[in-house]
From TrEMBL:
<feature type="domain" description="HYR">
    <location>
        <begin position="69"/>
        <end position="153"/>
    </location>
</feature>
<dbReference type="InterPro" id="IPR003410">
    <property type="entry name" value="HYR_dom"/>
</dbReference>
<protein>
    <recommendedName>
        <fullName>HYR domain-containing protein</fullName>
    </recommendedName>
</protein>
<keyword id="KW-0677">Repeat</keyword>
<feature type="domain" description="HYR">
    <location>
        <begin position="154"/>
        <end position="236"/>
    </location>
</feature>
<dbReference type="Pfam" id="PF02494">
    <property type="entry name" value="HYR"/>
</dbReference>
<feature type="domain" description="HYR">
    <location>
        <begin position="1"/>
        <end position="68"/>
    </location>
</feature>
Length: 240
């Protein structure tokens, strides 16, 4: 077919005919439909013929075909661009939308299909999601438009109930103080987070005279961190 058209313009040399008895033969062109030479032919096979008939009723037939194929791929316009987005605050996904592409084809018979996990204006989880649109026309010619949604996690964990610094006195006749505190909790939008205690000591535990600096560190799967710091301050006079 012509580029951008749903037909092909075809022409041929008209045949000639001779007969041994009659020089005024009638030549008839028969066609199942309307045709001209040259003419526009749509996709498919069109059978044509010339029939020569002399005055005695003798006939000769010349048959041929016009075979028009469609080899032109559809054209997808406005293919979405790849997007890199952070997850929603407090959520383990990002809501992403894009403008739908359009498709054109010379045949005017084309289907555009979305491929991939997810929907337009839908929720996408952490990582890379590969998406595409495929256009297929009636002749099986196709075009593909590909893009990606890249979702990252940039949100730090939240440490809840960070212990307060405590100032305590030593136990009677001891050079330490027994100290305890409520363990903190941690939340993260990814739901994949580790909370680690840092420092010398345990909870509960014995802490020597002076200041002991302690902390908790929360790290999620993407390496985002949060730190909670406090101290145990032990004072008193040790008597043996």
């Amino acid at each position: 077919m012509e580029t951008g058209q749903n037909f092909a313009t075809v022409f041929w040399t008209e045949p000639k005919v001779i007969d041994n008895a009659d020089s005024s033969l009638k030549i008839n062109l028969t066609f199942d439909g309307e045709v001209t030479n040259p003419g526009n032919f749509t996709r498919g096979i069109t059978s044509l013929s010339y029939i020569a008939e002399d005055t005695a009723g003798n006939r000769a037939t010349c048959m041929f075909e016009i075979v028009v194929s469609d080899t032109e791929d559809p054209v997808i316009a406005g293919c979405p661009s790849s997007q890199s987005v952070p997850m929603e605050t407090g959520q383990n996904f990002a809501t992403v939308s894009w403008t739908e592409p359009t498709v054109a084809d010379n045949s005017n018979n084309v289907t555009l299909t979305f491929n991939g996990e997810g929907t337009n204006a839908g929720d996408f989880s952490l990582g890379i999601t590969s998406l595409s649109y495929t256009a297929v026309d009636g002749a099986g010619n196709r075009a593909t438009c590909m893009f990606e949604i890249v979702v990252s996690d940039t949100e730090e964990p939240v440490i809840q109930r960070c212990p307060s610094t405590q100032s305590v006195s030593t136990e009677p006749h001891q050079d330490f103080a027994m100290v305890t505190w409520v363990e903190p909790g941690v939340t993260d939008n990814s739901n994949d987070v580790t909370l680690t205690f840092n420092g010398e000591g345990t909870n509960p535990g014995n802490f020597s005279l002076g200041i002991t600096s302690l902390s908790y560190t929360a790290v999620d799967a993407q390496g985002n961190t949060a730190t909670c710091m406090f101290a145990i301050v032990v004072s008193g006079k040790y008597l043996k």
